[in-house]
Specification:
8-stranded mixed beta sheet; 7 helices; 19% strand
C-alpha cells in the first residue's frame, strides 16, 4: 500500500517537458530572427550600394535631358541637347511632365516607383532611393519589392513631384541598426547638426539642395506637443507661417535660415518611441536660385 501511494503522489514529468520544449522553441525562434535580421541588414546595404552605382554620372550632374523640337531634328541637330540650368529645373508648362534626369533613367527602368534620391551630408547612411506607391507597400519591402524589415524610404502617397507640392513628405523606419532614418535623432543635437547642415533631394525630374528649418519631436495625438506635419500645400501665406511658427516652437534646434511663403519644403518623418505615440520630424526648405549652398553651409557654424 505504501509503495502504491508513493507512486501515485509522484509529480508528472510532462509540465516540465512542455516548459522545456517551449523555452527551446523560443530560443530557436530568437536565434533565427537574429540571423534573419543580420542577413536583411546586409541585403539592404548591398542594394543601396548597387543603386548608388547605377546612378549615371557620364553627363554633368546638373544637366537634365531635354528633347529637341521637331524643327531642330529636321536640321540634323542632335535629338537630345544638354541644357545646364542653375536650378536644374526644366522650363515647362506645369501640365507637361519633363524628361527624367539622365542620372536616374537606369534606376527608373529597374523600378518605376522611383521618384527621387535623398542624401544628407551629416548622416552618411541617409543616401538612398525614394519611391512612391501607397502608405503600406514599402514598409517591409526593399527597392525590388522583396521582404525586408528595413523597408524603403517612400514619399507620401498623396504628394505630387510634378507639378511639385509645397511640402514633400518622406517616411522611413527608425531602425535600431541606424539604417534608413535610424540616425535622424542625432539631428536634435544642434552642435552636431550644424557641422554639415545641407541635404540633397533630387526628384527624377529636378535637383534640389535644402537647409534645415526645424527638428521637431511631436505627438500623433492632440496635446501640447502635437504638430500637424501632414500638410502638402498651403492656401496662403498665413497658413504657411502658422506651420513654420509651430515647427520652430517645438524645434530642438534653431537654424539661422529664413523661410518665406513660396519656398519649397521637404519633411522627413520617422517613428520615435516604442509605443508609437511620437514622431521625429525634420523640416527643410529648398535653397533658392539666388543663394549659394556653400555660403549657407557655413552660416550656422
Amino acid at each position: 500500500m505504501r509503495a502504491r501511494n508513493y507512486y501515485r503522489k509522484r509529480p508528472s514529468p510532462w509540465p516540465r517537458r512542455i516548459l522545456a520544449a517551449l523555452l527551446t522553441g523560443m530560443l530557436a525562434y530568437a536565434a533565427v530572427s537574429l540571423i534573419r535580421y543580420g542577413v536583411q541588414q546586409q541585403q539592404s546595404r548591398a542594394i543601396q550600394e548597387e543603386l548608388q552605382a547605377a546612378i549615371c554620372t557620364e553627363m554633368p550632374v546638373d544637366t537634365p535631358i531635354v528633347t529637341a523640337p521637331p524643327a531642330a531634328q529636321e536640321q540634323n541637330t542632335p535629338a537630345f541637347t544638354s541644357v545646364p540650368r542653375p536650378s536644374a529645373t526644366p522650363t515647362l508648362e506645369p501640365w507637361r511632365t519633363p524628361e527624367i534626369l539622365f542620372a536616374y533613367q537606369s534606376l527608373y527602368e529597374k523600378n518605376n516607383d522611383l521618384i527621387g534620391w535623398l542624401k544628407m551630408d551629416r548622416l552618411y547612411r541617409v543616401d538612398f532611393a525614394v519611391v512612391q506607391r501607397d502608405q503600406a507597400y514599402y514598409l517591409r519591402r526593399d527597392f525590388y519589392g522583396k521582404s525586408n524589415m528595413n523597408g524603403t524610404a517612400f514619399l507620401d502617397a498623396a504628394n505630387r513631384i510634378w507639378p511639385r507640392d509645397d511640402n514633400l513628405i518622406i517616411y522611413a523606419h527608425n531602425m535600431k541598426s541606424g539604417e534608413m532614418f535610424g540616425e535622424l535623432k542625432k539631428l536634435m543635437n544642434e552642435v552636431y547638426y550644424r557641422e554639415a547642415p545641407l541635404t540633397r533631394f533630387n526628384t527624377i525630374y529636378e535637383r534640389g539642395t535644402y537647409v534645415p528649418v526645424a527638428v521637431v519631436l511631436c505627438t500623433v495625438a492632440q496635446g501640447d506637443e502635437f504638430f500637424n506635419f501632414y500638410t502638402r500645400s498651403f492656401r496662403n501665406a498665413a497658413e504657411f507661417n502658422r506651420f513654420i511658427d509651430r515647427a520652430r516652437e517645438l524645434s530642438k534646434v534653431h537654424p539661422p535660415y529664413d523661410v518665406r511663403y513660396g519656398d519649397d519644403l521637404l519633411t522627413l518623418v520617422t517613428c520615435y518611441d516604442d509605443a508609437d505615440t511620437q514622431r521625429l520630424v525634420v523640416i527643410l526648405r529648398r535653397v533658392r536660385d539666388d543663394e549659394d549652398p556653400a555660403v549657407l553651409a557655413v552660416r550656422w557654424k
